[in-house]
Amino acid sequence: MSKLDEIRLAAESDLKVFARLVNPKRVYGSIHDELFDFWQYGENDNTLVLLPRDHQKSHCLAVKTAWEIVKAPWETQLYVSATADLAEKQLYAMMLYLQHLVEELVLLLNVKILDLKE
What we know:
mainly alpha
């Protein structure tokens, strides 16, 4: 299995790995890891997240939604927000996460191709 395949499988199978891959400069704390684990391994599809303001709740949900799209692109995702403005910002963020993921994988693939040429 190639390094690229390993990274792809890790990102598809672990929400925390996916989050750090698409947001390499963002700092996640233990509360975010707990939230990602709860979403990934929890037994209930319906959740309510109560965290103080500016604790990245919307960001984490956008990452989770992008991860769900990567895992199952044939499924429909319904993203509901308090305001249209926030929903548009989150949809734009999801698009950027997916774009960044593609760019990272292309970069890794190019590195692999360069290694093969040497």
